[in-house]
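Internal ticket #5521
Category: modeling
Description: The requester needs a full-assembly model to guide mutagenesis choices. All entity lines are attached below as received. Residue total reported by intake: 977.
Assigned to: D.W.
Attached entities:
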Amino acid sequence: MSEITPDKVEAHGFTPEEYDRVLDALGREPNLLELGIFSVMWSEHCSYKSSRFHLKKLPTEAPWVICGPGENAGVIDIGEGPDGRKLAAIFKMESHNHPSYIEPYQGAATGVGGILRDVFTMGARPVANLNALRFGRPDHPKMKHLVQGVVAGIGGYGNCVGVPTVGGETNFDPAYDGNIIVNAMTVGVADQDRIFYSAATGVGNPIVYVGSKTGRDGIHGATMASADFGDDIEEKRPTVQVGDPFVEKLLIEACLELMATDAIVAIQDMGAAGLTSSSVEMATGGKTGIRLDMNQVPCREEGMTPYEMMLSESQERMLMVLKPGREAEAEAIFRKWELDFAVIGEVTDTQRMELVFGGETVCDIPLGPLAEKAPEYERPYLSREDYGIWANVEPLGALPEVTDIGADLLKLMASPALASRRWISQQYDSQVGADTLQTGGDAAVVRVHGTRKALAMTTDCTPRYCYADPYEGGKQAIAEAYRNLCAVGANPLAVTNCLNFGNPQRPEIMAQFVGCLQGMGDACRALDFPIVSGNVSLYNESKATGGGSAILPTPAIGGVGIIEDHAGVMTMGFKADGEEILVVGRKCAGSTAELGQSVWLREVAGAKAGSPPSVDLGHERKAGEFIRSLIDNRRVTAVHDVSDGGLIVTVAEMALAGGIGAALEAGAISAGKAYFAEDQGVYAITVPRGTGDTVISIAAGAGLVCEKLGTTGGDAITLAGRPEGADTIRCSVSLSDLREAHQRFFRDWMDS
Amino acid sequence: MSFSAAVITFPGSNCDRDMAVALETVTGHAPLRIWHGDADLPERLDLIALPGGFSYGDYLRSGALAARSPVLKAVSSAAARGVPVLGVCNGFQVLTESGLLPGALMRNESMHFICRDMPLRVENAESSFTNGFVTGQEITIPVAHHDGNFFANEETLDRLEGEGRVAFRYLDSCNGSRRDIAGILNAGGNVLGMMPHPERAVDAAHGGTDGRILFESMLNALAPA
């Protein structure tokens, strides 16, 4: 009787049509091991079967891009070091959503471990970690536990491996109640002549396994991450991997030590789908073949089957192809670091994956159907118009007037959306490496070790905008990353993305995906800001907790830029009393204020209505270049972009960061609520007293609006110079009240 | 004047490079890098530095396994000869675990890892590590640790205070340490353990240079009077 029953086919996540393709590919019925291998390789997580068609349309090239999507991470040229060495930045962002919901500490920790491996696999020393986290409503019964676990897991892993966690973003929305988002990003630096790729070449070359032993953990993790959460999530806990950052640290040092020699032909980390996907990807990339002897795989337990070995997602493991005769040299390095080292197979010319166990061939699959010819779907999606009807976003309608700006400002600063994230960031070692120059600003800044250069990095996405208008939301995520890099004085170079969406088999979810990607693509093209790496996480839906069904569309962006001389890094805090505060990129007066989908609308007016602010990409670029030129020419003393909460929140954050207040000019902005508008492409800056007019005229020459908003000084944010009356707007908030409001949310939540 | 320092690397150390860079920046001499398995150290050394990190993954207890590694025997005998030994963060934990310094470093009272700039008071500016400071001087040096909650019994604490062996004290709530102790000296004054990271406050780009004074102090201590 056949060992492959319809139940087993279904349990491995195949549709009947897909299983027919397996039969076609093999010309026979698979055995259980082969079925398992097809299952993980054709899972959404590994095959990108619903997303590939659309991902191909993203712009991925620029003169400074050394390697775009397709390898473990993207690689960009960041110029020469002082000794003439050509340097590269290597980076990527990846999701670990499902495991983090099931087991937050290990899920988040192994997410960090996995993305670190993607980067050092290519020859880079990791220099910075960032993250993008989305949680449900804070009063959801599981949420405090999830936040604590995820933050501890990110810190527990990153702190131990000695890579500083320098930035990230955290949002809350009920749409994530049953499916949180944990995206981790790593940035590394390598010599351009020491970049390693994954293509296995050289027939007969040894295939080497290094790192930890293989255990029974994480079996079918990739398949689990490719389905909605059902009611059985607690039972899925054994599919979550367990990480050991200590081993990862040893693995980083051992790999970099071996990479300093020329013994390596190819190298690939074992991430999702472990040994299966790493070996298939290496052989496919090299257009070769692979034969592995499963008896040689280092195992943690006795009696493991080839099925378990091939599908395990045990952490901290790598697969390498060495040049012939270099095994002893490599082994000595890995033994020194007390890591496993085993030759487990060889490169062949068969275009097949052959596995041998106990002298018998237990798997023999042609590579084509596993990878390049894996299923690919053009899933149906709603038109923009039909999506708008489905999303059912209310028109903005009439809004309440704001007369006391200060009261609303305090409310916003104390809200989960804008509250200080210090409770989180203090749990991360942000300084190890002694090259961290800035955290907590618009972008994190880390010096390129031993040079004057610095990398600026940011993660961004506004999911509520993406829901209301996927196209504009996609544009905005890219534009905001661009803006945050410009605000610290960096030249934006490239982005990585992590596309978190719901079930792609629903046309409305697919409409979100397609719309966001179109917006991102247009923004990347307009800003010369290509996408060099990324990850897709679909099926972020849950019925398990009574939460909302699908998450908000969350195409998280990780942007990287370069600062040639780190002495010029710009920060957001006010620097001195009596400086002029200017607004760049928006008329202070006027009625075009963008309040649709704003934080103010949600927190104060209690509505989620209207269109998100639109992004004018031409303006965005012009404003960014103008800000960078002001920074380069030392004309500004502080820069901060306008985002969640609007201009008044921008000013409040600058005041808190510098410990200096501000007096806003009466009448600069006539309508109170316009202070809370989230207009895009807008920056607040300070310039030394008496230089405002010069900067305003330079801006005019560049075709940009730039107006005076007020003056720094004092220990409060006030609206000065107009007698108070019932029909006038007013503001008077002390910095101490502001700081208390800002700190309150996490302190009260976590200490309660 | 040459300054001959050695930085020990254990498996899991992650501030060893930062310590070496700081030493070279301030003293002008690159320190030796010593692997934990090396049983011997050079006879003449002006400093042995035990860096921060997670030696042996903090398994068992932070610092416990490193304290029993081959190189620690050599460190102990050098310390007994009067060679200055500086343990920072995990290095401090190794020093208490090995008995070179009294007390223990427990999990932070908050149970959370804490990373932030920390105001400190210099309590003893006489030692070979702190002579560039003034007693009572307030300085800022970053902390980054999970197990920095210094504990010793009252008698030991009284003795440390009485003998001027408290080198630094936290000026802000940090980790629950008894008497806010951030760093202590051994009886001979040649072994300093401290949780804050002076190597992260050496150049202006770090946002503060108070840590630099600690390394300069060691140079001063060597200079002919």
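Resolution: model delivered.
Comment from assignee: The first strand of chain A starts at residue 65 and ends at 67.
Ticket closed.
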